[in-house]
Backbone:
């Protein structure tokens, strides 16, 4: 007889599972990046409080994004998260290829080290995960924007602007 | 319902930025695998050329108190790469130059003739020189003051008192604005000061003691050196030489060996490690033997720093090869083989086990090293020096050598009183550079590195301190034994030449100034014939 016994658990739809996995990936990558940015900030503390404050600020915002993801914030959060993360990736690339006036004593591009590469890899995972979480019409726009930025970076490198 | 998935097109869109973020910074690293333009087939494979040591020069004559030497600075041709001729500048035409072996208490008089061409044949500068005996408390006029230049065709006689403890010194060029080129061309050599204490200790000597003069070079297709200091930031060669030999192989017996390690590179720092990761024992620093030996598995070595290390090969089997590797330091440019320095091949049992210790039976080496007796409470003055790049120039506390010249050599950053102790704090706020800072005249004690104790291998008398990126180092020194003006500079030689050098003046209470570094013993034209010494 139907309805007797414990109710069977509702099967999880594949779309829900995918959403949950992408959300986990985004939350994990953004929180780990936030922690690594604290490390980066501490590394800069010796010579530039401004730079250190920047990285601590980034860490704080990323921790906020992580919390927003956990609470399933609005679509706008995803778009802002992608925008901010892409900006950080671009800043990373530019700082490794060009000498930025980051502080008074900066006289060459930053060194490409394991910490920086780890952070940027995590940020790329964040961008992908946030894009996947976005609604389809948002996602297309977001990814078109990311494509344009990527092409722009390559163009700047190929033309010698970034060198 | 939204499908949370990325399709192939989405991934392609992402990949433009992803590839840029990963590949472009790495391209910078990967593309820097070699610097030389000579065919790679002309470069020897590491550990295939035999180890050699520079010859020890004999004095022209000796009397009761003094040994007299004559050394000509002249061009020579070296076969550094097999079958390839490389023009060099050398003391006696060889690079590294001949080793001078001096005894404490006996003065050395060194007559140095500049027989170099009026202009460098390729680089065009006037090849003036100034010989600095690095590690010696010489009078100002014999200290190799940068502007006390000996022009081609001139001669200058230097006097070295040799009153300090036994140590590994080196003599190298210090001519203003061309120190880097001259040293790179080969004007550098070791100078060993021995004394009864050092000779009485059961530490390796004779056949079991060797200099290791580390340099790095870039070779042009015709075998000449390429000088490229990257806009005065530093020259990073892709070929590592030990005593003028690329990546040599040294045969060793199963016992302890003592190495007098000198980083004579212009800008490359080294971090030494044995391939076995076994510890090395450090027994001496720039200013001579340490109070007691220290063991370390890694040794960071800035330009001009000297460490005497003992490596024990007793535990290795005959035929076993042990490499001395360079783990590299932050902000040095590394290439394919700059991680390799040299190798040791164990031949078999030792022919002699005499002097096979790292200290005396009490574990001591030089318990009375004067610099190591200094304590912060003895300092009568504290000063701060900032090493930095400002407006495209390398400066020390905002001053350059040009400022010193402009002041008719009067401008100083400090006026310590003779025989007083001062504490100097050297600050490097940059994350992009390290600066090995050399204070002439004195031995100092490193008391603090970024608020912490110095590395254990730095616990000996020093005259160069590695001031790493974002580091602050505190040192104590007793200023003397001479009055006068002496230089302080970065030993990244392109930095020094452009223009990270200034001076301090040791002053007395009332007895007048010290000797003038330029006018007290000026060079003069080489007489013909050259009189006997």
Residues:
């Amino acid at each position: 007889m139907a309805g007797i016994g414990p109710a069977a658990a509702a099967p999880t739809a594949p779309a829900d599972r995918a959403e949950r996995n992408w959300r986990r990936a985004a939350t994990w990558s953004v929180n780990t990046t936030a922690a690594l940015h604290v490390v980066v900030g501490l590394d800069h503390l010796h010579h530039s409080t401004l730079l250190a404050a920047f990285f601590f600020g980034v860490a704080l915002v990323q921790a906020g994004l992580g919390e927003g993801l956990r609470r399933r914030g609005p679509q706008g959060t995803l778009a802002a998260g992608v925008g901010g993360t892409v900006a950080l990736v671009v800043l990373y690339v530019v700082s490794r290829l060009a000498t930025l006036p980051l502080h008074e004593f900066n006289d060459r591009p930053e060194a490409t080290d394991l910490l920086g590469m780890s952070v940027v890899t995590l940020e790329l995972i964040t961008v992908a995960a946030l894009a996947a979480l976005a609604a389809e019409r948002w996602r297309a726009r977001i990814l078109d924007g990311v494509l344009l930025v990527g092409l722009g970076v390559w163009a700047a490198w190929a033309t010698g602007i970034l060198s | 319902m939204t499908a949370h998935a990325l399709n192939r097109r989405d991934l392609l869109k992402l990949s433009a930025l992803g590839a840029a973020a990963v590949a472009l910074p790495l391209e910078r690293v990967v593309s820097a695998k070699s610097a030389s333009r000579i065919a790679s087939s002309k470069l020897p494979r590491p550990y295939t050329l035999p180890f050699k040591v520079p010859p020890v020069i004999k004095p022209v004559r000796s009397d009761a108190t003094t040994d007299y030497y004559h050394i000509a600075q002249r061009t020579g041709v070296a076969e550094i790469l097999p079958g390839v001729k490389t023009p060099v500048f050398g003391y006696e035409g060889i690079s590294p130059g001949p080793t001078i072996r001096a005894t404490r208490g006996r003065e050395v008089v060194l007559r140095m003739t500049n027989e170099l061409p009026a202009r460098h044949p390729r680089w065009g500068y006037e090849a003036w020189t100034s010989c600095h005996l690095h590690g010696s408390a010489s009078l100002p006029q014999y200290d190799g003051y940068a502007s006390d230049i000996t022009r081609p065709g001139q001669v200058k006689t230097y006097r070295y008192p040799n009153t300090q403890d036994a140590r590994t010194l080196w003599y190298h060029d210090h001519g203003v604005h061309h120190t880097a080129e001259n040293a790179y061309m080969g004007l550098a050599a070791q100078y060993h000061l021995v004394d009864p204490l050092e000779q009485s200790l059961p530490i390796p000597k004779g056949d079991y003691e060797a200099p290791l003069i580390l340099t790095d070079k870039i070779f042009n297709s015709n075998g000449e050196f390429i000088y490229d200091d990257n806009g005065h930031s530093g020259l990073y060669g892709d070929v590592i030489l030990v005593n003028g030999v690329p990546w040599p192989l040294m045969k060793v017996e199963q016992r302890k060996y003592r190495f007098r390690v000198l980083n004579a590179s212009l800008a490359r720092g080294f971090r030494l490690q044995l391939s076995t990761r076994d510890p090395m024992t450090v027994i001496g620093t720039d200013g001579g033997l340490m109070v007691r030996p220290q063991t370390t598995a890694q040794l960071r070595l800035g330009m001009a720093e000297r460490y005497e290390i003992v490596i024990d090969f007793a535990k290795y089997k005959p035929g076993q090869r042990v490499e001395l590797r360079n783990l590299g330091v932050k902000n040095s440019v590394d290439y394919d083989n700059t991680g390799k320095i040299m190798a040791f091949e164990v031949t078999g049992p030792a022919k002699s086990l005499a002097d096979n210790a790292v200290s005396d039976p009490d574990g001591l080496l030089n318990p009375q090293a004067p610099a190591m007796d200094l304590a912060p409470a003895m300092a009568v003055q504290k000063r701060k020096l900032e090493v930095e790049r400002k407006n495209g120039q390398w400066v020390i506390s905002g001053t350059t050598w040009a400022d010193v010249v402009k002041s008719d050599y009067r401008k100083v950053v400090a006026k310590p009183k003779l025989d007083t102790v001062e504490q100097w704090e050297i600050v490097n706020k940059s994350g992009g550079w390290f600066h090995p800072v050399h204070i002439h005249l004195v031995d100092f004690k490193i008391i603090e590195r970024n608020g912490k104790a110095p590395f254990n291998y730095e616990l000996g008398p020093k005259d160069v301190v590695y001031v790493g990126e974002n580091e602050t180092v505190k040192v104590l020194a007793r200023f003397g034994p001479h009055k006068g003006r002496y230089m302080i500079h970065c030993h990244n030689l392109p930095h020094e030449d452009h223009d990270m050098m200034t001076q301090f003046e040791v002053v007395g209470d009332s007895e007048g100034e010290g000797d003038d570094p330029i006018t007290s013993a000026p060079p003069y034209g080489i007489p013909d014939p050259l009189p006997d010494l």
